[in-house]
Amino acid sequence: MRIRLLVADDHELILAAVRTVLADAPDIEIVAEAHSGSEVLPLVRRAMPDVALLDLRMPGMDGLRCLELLRERHPSVKAIVFSGNEEPAAVEASLARGAVAFIQKTINPSDLAAVIRQAVAGNVFFAVSIRSPVDAMYSDWDLTPRETEILVALAGGQSNKEIAGQFCLSQQTIKYHLTNIYRKLEVGSRTEAVRQAYEHGLIENPVLRVTG
Questions:
Q1: Sequence-separated contacts (24+) of 198-204 with Cβ below 8 Å
Q2: Pick the CATH number of 130-212 from 2.40.50.140, 3.40.50.300, 1.10.10.10, 1.20.1290.10
Q3: Average of per-residue pLDDT across 74-84
Q4: How many CA atoms lie within 13 A of 33 on its CB side?
Q5: Which of 92, 102, 162, 187 has its CA 20 to 30 A from that of 18?
Q6: In terms of DSSP bridges, do strands 101-104 and 78-83 run parallel, antiparallel, or are they unpaired?
């Protein structure tokens, strides 16, 4: 399946960078580019993309309003927010308006195509710019940095409410992440997810911890 992509950003440098990054993704085709929010809906009607990659801050109409109108008028189009905003409130607002993914512009360029593919598959994805030393341990499982943090919190016995408070996210957003974690680890519950993580060395098992 070839994914038809619309990219909306008022900075030509970003548009050029996305073009370059996706040039090596044969299954993704950029079918339209918008330089303002007001261009997005008309271009969606003409180009009929599968996915819209949207900046939050654009002239004419901001990304949040674009999300609302896309959900209302073109619900089949998957919307991904591509932003430099790191505020949890921006993530919450985007997901509440129908975005299936929120990624920052500091994302590793090699990860962008994978995020777009996940969006088409219907997976909610949240990518942050902060990378921890344990991230590499999760690469084989395709877990995002946020998912790895939530998995560690699960192992610590925290509830969804406690995890939401720790990361300043809503409990609904935590449920989204847990769904992705369960799918990627091929498990059906938080207990199984933690056990899988222990068995494969993704989390240090306190029972096996060696003290000196």
A1: 198/155, 201/137, 202/137, 202/138, 202/141, 202/148, 202/151, 203/151, 203/152, 203/155
A2: 1.10.10.10
A3: 91
A4: 14
A5: 92
A6: parallel
Are the CB atoms for 107 and 71 separated by under 8 Å?
no
Q: Are 146 and 127 in contact (CB under 8 A)?
A: yes
**pLDDT tens digits for 80-139?**
998 887 677 788 888 889 888 888 887 778 778 887 887 777 655 554 433 333 443 444
Every domain of the chain and the residues it spans:
1-129, 130-212
Phi and psi at 12, nearest 5°, equal -60, -30
Whole-number average pLDDT of the chain: 82
pLDDT at 5 over 90: yes
Q: Give tens-digit pLDDT for 158-193.
A: 899 999 888 888 888 888 888 888 888 888 888 888
Sheet holding 28-34, edge to edge: 28-34, 3-8, 51-54, 78-83, 101-104, 125-127
Q: Looking up tokens 């993580």, which residue turns up?
A: 197
3: tokens are 């994914």
Classified as helix, coil or strand, 38 is helix
Distance (Å, rounded) from C-alpha 73 to C-alpha 170?
Answer: 26
Q: CATH number of 1-129: 3.40.50.960, 3.40.50.2300, 1.10.10.10, 3.40.50.880? A: 3.40.50.2300
Q: Check whether 12 has a pLDDT greater than 60.
A: yes
